[in-house]
Amino acid sequence: MRFRVWRIIRYVEILTVSVLAVFALFTYRELSALRKQPVALPQYEFEAADDPEKGRVVRSRGTWIAELGPPEPLQTTTIECRKSSMQCLESAATVVFVGDRGVLESVQTVFDVDRWTDAEIVSKPTPVKCTNRTLVIDVANKHTRSRVSAAEERGACKARPEGTLDLVTGFKVRDAIQKASQ
Questions:
Q1: Which residues contact 65 (CB under 8 A, 6 or more apart)?
Q2: Shortest CA distance to 72 belongs to which of 182, 145, 176?
Q3: What pTM does this model have?
Q4: 3-state SS class at 107
Q5: Residue 82: how many CA atoms within 13 Å on its side-chain side?
Q6: How far apart are CA 60 and CA 169, in angstroms?
Q7: According to the model, what pLDDT value does residue 61 have?
């Protein structure tokens, strides 16, 4: 009888440890996923308005996603174009991973506008981190794109293929990053 009770206690202990191990595995997988994507990215927004002080202003906000090629890092971008100054200011906050820690980096880029019509705003090519970027804002369809091409001066830069980035709502980028990591 005593041996039987001891055996039942052992089985209960083994079952308890097994269940806890399964929960630990699920918790570890969930925390690993959160470390890879530690932030919630914002929705896409687009606004075109006439401001009495600033003149015509077009604002767009979202997350860049590559049409083809490797996914862009986790980031959020706000673009404000003013017709009075014929410039677009892009403010981007990017999560850069150093080991398993995410560090937030902030960068502002000024794009000079080449052409501004009621339907479209196109910037001049602007050098940005080993590439040249051109903003193309389709005001009529409320869509923002960036054409990326290789910079003339390469120096220590790796060759990057030409491509197009679309400003989209944040969950689309998270889905693309998850698919790329699988």
A1: 71, 72, 165, 166, 168, 172, 173, 176
A2: 176
A3: 0.72
A4: strand
A5: 10
A6: 11
A7: 95
